[in-house]
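Notes on consecutive records. When two proteins share a document, each keeps its own sequence and its own token line. Never mix them. Below: protein one.
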Amino acid sequence: MKPSMSIQELRAIYMQKYEENKELVDARIAEGIETYRKGDCCVQIKDKQGNPIACKKIKVTQVSHDFKYGANLFLLDEFKNDKANA
């Protein structure tokens, strides 16, 4: 690649490779999500006295995570400055 290539030209090159291997890449992404971003857990809910509560419906909301959501590398460094690309 020549150093004077525009972001649009670079993006076209990267996207061409993706499109050529789209089925394989998409399958690998789906497998990675199932393997690394999902998991099972067991939750035991107890009352104030510490007794287990059975057969109750609960709602869980995730409020934080240990990884950045997404990784759209096709747009890597496409913005005009480092802060926007972070």
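Protein two starts on the next line and is unrelated to protein one.
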Amino acid sequence: MLTIGSLPITESSVISLVVSFIIGLIIGLIIKRLIAVGLLILALVIILMAIGVLSPSTVVHWLESAGQYVNTAVAEANKLKSYIPYDSITFIIGLIIGLLK
């Protein structure tokens, strides 16, 4: 068992740090991909509106329909929030690397 100062470094603490880093990295990559997909969908909708295929009222209807599922998504996200080690510095480092990579 290694020690830094008076703090012992155990195998379980190293595994915990590595797992929280990997979870942060994966969540960062997922957020980055979701933002990219959202921007692509937004660009597609703008182009379709510009050429007259979609009307603004159709887009508003789609947004209202999607808004009905937001409460369900928020409830599911709150369930998952308890599993994410968002207070760990290694998670935050992994999240930032995932967002920037």
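For the record: The CA atoms of residues 70 and 95 lie 24 Å apart.
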